Amino acid sequence: MSQTEALIRQLSEYIDKLELESMLRSIGYRGIARELDIIERVLEKLRDAYKANELSPEQITQITNLKSSEKYNKAREALYEFLDKRHAEYCTKKGIARQGARRAVTRRADMFERTPHCYQCKGELNSRINMECDACGWLICWCGACGCSYGSDTTNP
Ligand SMILES: [Zn+2]
Ligand SMILES: [Zn+2]
């Protein structure tokens, strides 16, 4: 089996295991984030293979189908909804305007560096998983914090 075939098989197996309801009961949102992080890493490798013209049309179709599968999208949307809600709660708590959230734009060059820590709770942030704030562009933490109130409340979290 080629390396690409192995990656596609891995992707398929990981996505097949994504049972949202039972994952929410057993491992919770952070556990789901860990699973999705693994999947995103495999997808990054496949994206590299695609750029290097190493994928056959059949393989590209396979990957496209996996990415549009219900399990994968349900898990991702659930996680995004959760982070969006935490972000909204944080904005309300800090008395700042409610900002939208979007999937983090991971520029290739800074992808691996962009795993900073939250200034509020010191939690780890990951641009593969955490969304970013529409207003400030900072990654949104599990605690809901983004950069919008940075500096104004670091002494009073
Ligand atoms: Zn935080
Ligand atoms: Zn913000």
3D structure, described in words:
The protein has a two-stranded antiparallel sheet. The longest helix has 25 residues. Helix 1 runs antiparallel to helix 3, helix 1 runs parallel beside helix 4 and helix 2 crosses helix 3. The protein has one domain. It is mainly α. It has five helices and two strands. The radius of gyration is 17 Å and the shape is elongated. Bound molecules: zinc ion (ZN) (2 copies).
Task: Write a concise keyword list for the protein shown above.
157 residues; mainly alpha; 2 strands; binds zinc ion
Element-level helix/strand string: HHHHHEE
Strand order of the largest sheet: 1-2
Low-confidence stretches: none
Q: How widely separated are the two ends?
A: 52 Å
Mean pLDDT across all residues, rounded? 89
Percent of residues in beta strands? under 5%
How many structural domains can be distinguished in the coordinates?
1
Overall geometric form: elongated
- Using only C-alpha atoms, the radius of gyration works out to 17 Å
Query: What percentage of residues falls in helices of 4 or more residues?
Result: 40-55%
User: Which kinds of small molecule does this entry bind, naming each only once?
Assistant: zinc ion
- The number of helical runs is 5
Class of secondary structure makeup: mainly alpha
* Tally of DSSP β-strands: 2
User: What is the subunit arrangement here?
Assistant: single chain
Largest sheet: 2 strands, antiparallel
